[in-house]
């Protein structure tokens, strides 16, 4: 039988408790996995075991798909009105709102995020449901089309059916929300796999989904390893679509599995190596603050992190001085302690990966301008790290590090910086700082990126689409665009007899 995990939070920033079920959530119930195996969930702040959760395997995915298909055919899909779906989404948003500190605390425990910041984020997450996708649920419409024949022709945007959703560990709750809200608004049933590193908020959410009153089988949550449960979702013959957020490496595998199974539809939100271009005429206070947010927020474990900062020669020295002071002032530590800016990285393997990149930067001849070190403590802490004197071919300039590590590069020529900025396999996001509107917008239009932030950083909004160019993927999360991931378009043509 599945276990219940109870925990009392006693940190400075939040005291309270949580209770969550550690089973797989299938057909509205928490159950053990078919194989009875479990996954250890570790606390990145201490390296110690938090709890164990049930491990889902291919067999469990299959059981969940059957439950989801049954729900789609009986209680959801075309059987639930848009208004009914909207009401359930609103109810879920209310529950998330009510439990936001608890959800934030679970996420901080599991992922190491800073609790105050994440608590504020919870408001935004609930709004994504409440004000945005619940609003769409009863407004999914097709078109009436003129064909110049005696015919009635129209399109319907129908739910796809059972969809798979696979998410990473860097924003477990936020990305679960981005994925399930548009899929539910459009009437799909879901098999969601959280990352094996951070399954806890998804399991707490599963209980809230049940409490909100979603019919059994509409949302199924299966913690599991990527190569096992994730691969089973990508290859399953009765899953018609898979929406994936994660690395480009795994995105490629998802596409392969999708093409070799049932040619399922795929939406991919993948990695990034976002350029941040700061011109001589930028408001430097604004640019420094945004650059720090752009790379150090969530320890740089952000797909859109501004990890390559290009600074024009006239302000390079001053920028570097102020930006370095900012990095030095950041307080790293227990995410539940007052005054802490950033907690640990998510896991030991990821800590080793980021430290490996720092080593490679040094070996390839870049200068460590600041830090390049881990931070003391039992957990996986790394200090903000700034590299200078890089060359375009270095791994730290080309590859996604996904940590608090940034390269600062001097430039003089506008065309040249755009060429350099576009010179990676990625195209997720970019940042531009200039007080000259023509220059800022011209640059924004020439950058190959799905999002460009001009004189701001990291802004996300429920109705603004987010996704990539090039090997950062395709399809969009958020906004009306995300609804397109989850509907099939059917054209209906009705022959009419003209009455004399
Ligand atoms: P990852 O690709 O290793 O894993 C992501 C998810 O895929 C996890 O749930 C994992 O278990 C699963 N998975 C792994 N192998 C699989 C397989 N063979 N088949 C199916 N599923 C499999 O990524 P990660 O380390 O968890 O997250 C970091 C990556 O996510 C970074 O590259 C980051 O840029 C990206 N990301 C992108 C966005 C975006 O919106 N573009 C947002 C957040 C994170």
From TrEMBL:
UniProt keyword Oxidoreductase, yes or no: yes
GO terms, molecular function: aldehyde dehydrogenase [NAD(P)+] activity
Protein name, entry field: Aldehyde dehydrogenase (NAD(P)(+)) ald5
All residue ranges annotated as the Aldehyde dehydrogenase domain in the record: 32-492
Keyword Glycosyltransferase part of the UniProt annotation: no
PROSITE patterns: ALDEHYDE_DEHYDR_CYS, ALDEHYDE_DEHYDR_GLU
InterPro entries recorded: Ald_DH/histidinol_DH (IPR016161), Ald_DH_C (IPR016163), Ald_DH_CS_CYS (IPR016160), Ald_DH_CS_GLU (IPR029510), Ald_DH_N (IPR016162), Aldehyde_DH_dom (IPR015590)
One Pfam family per UniProt: Aldedh
Entry keyword set: Oxidoreductase
Active-site residues per Swiss-Prot or TrEMBL entry: 269
PANTHER family for this protein: ALDEHYDE DEHYDROGENASE-RELATED (PTHR11699)
UniProt similarity note: Belongs to the aldehyde dehydrogenase family.
């Amino acid at each position: 039988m599945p276990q219940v995990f109870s925990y009392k939070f006693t940190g400075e920033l939040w005291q309270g408790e949580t209770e969550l079920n550690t089973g797989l959530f299938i057909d509205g119930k928490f159950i053990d996995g078919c194989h009875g195996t479990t996954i250890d969930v570790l606390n990145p702040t201490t390296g110690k075991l938090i709890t164990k959760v049930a491990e889902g395997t291919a067999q469990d995915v299959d059981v969940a798909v059957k439950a989801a298909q049954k729900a789609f055919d009986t209680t959801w899909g075309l059987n639930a009105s848009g208004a009914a779906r909207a009401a359930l989404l609103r109810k879920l948003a209310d529950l998330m709102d009510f439990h936001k500190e608890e959800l934030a605390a679970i996420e901080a425990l599991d992922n190491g995020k800073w609790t105050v910041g994440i608590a504020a984020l919870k408001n935004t997450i609930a709004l994504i449901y409440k004000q945005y996708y619940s609003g769409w649920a009863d407004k999914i419409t097709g078109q009436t089309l003129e064909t110049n024949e005696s015919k009635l022709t129209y399109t319907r945007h129908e739910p796809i059916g059972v969809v798979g959703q696979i998410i990473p560990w860097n924003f477990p709750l936020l990305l679960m929300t981005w994925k399930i809200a548009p899929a539910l608004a459009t009437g799909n049933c879901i098999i969601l796999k959280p990352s094996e590193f951070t399954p806890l908020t998804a399991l707490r959410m599963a209980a809230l989904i049940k409490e909100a009153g979603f019919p059994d089988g509409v949302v199924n949550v299966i913690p599991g390893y990527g190569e096992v449960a994730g691969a089973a979702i990508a290859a399953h013959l009765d899953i018609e679509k898979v929406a994936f957020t994660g690395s480009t490496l795994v995105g490629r595998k998802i596409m392969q599995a999708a093409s070799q199974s049932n040619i399922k539809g795929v939406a991919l939100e993948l990695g990034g190596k976002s350029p941040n271009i700061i011109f001589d005429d930028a408001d430097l206070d604004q640019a420094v603050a945004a650059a720090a947010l752009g790379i150090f927020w969530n320890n740089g474990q952000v797909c859109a992190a501004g990890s390559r900062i290009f600074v024009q020669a006239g302000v390079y020295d001053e920028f570097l001085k102020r930006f370095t002071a900012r990095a030095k002032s950041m307080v790293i530590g227990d995410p539940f302690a007052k005054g802490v800016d950033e907690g640990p990285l998510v896991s030991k393997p990821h800590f080793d990966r980021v430290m490996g990149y720092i080593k490679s930067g040094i070996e390839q001849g870049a200068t460590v301008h600041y830090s390049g070190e881990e931070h003391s403590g039992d957990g996986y802490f790394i200090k903000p790290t700034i590299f200078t004197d890089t060359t375009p071919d270095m791994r730290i300039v080309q590859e996604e590090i996904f940590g608090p590590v940034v390269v600062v590069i001097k430039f003089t020529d506008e065309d040249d910086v755009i060429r350099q900025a576009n010179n990676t396999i990625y195209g997720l996001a970019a940042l531009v700082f200039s007080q000259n509107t023509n220059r800022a917008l011209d640059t924004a239009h020439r950058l190959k990126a799905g999002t460009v932030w001009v004189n701001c950083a990291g802004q996300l909004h429920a109705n603004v689409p987010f996704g990539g160019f090039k090997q950062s993927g395709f399809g969009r999360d958020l906004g009306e665009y995300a609804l397109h991931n989850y509907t099939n378009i059917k054209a209906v043509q009705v022959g009419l007899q003209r009455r004399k």
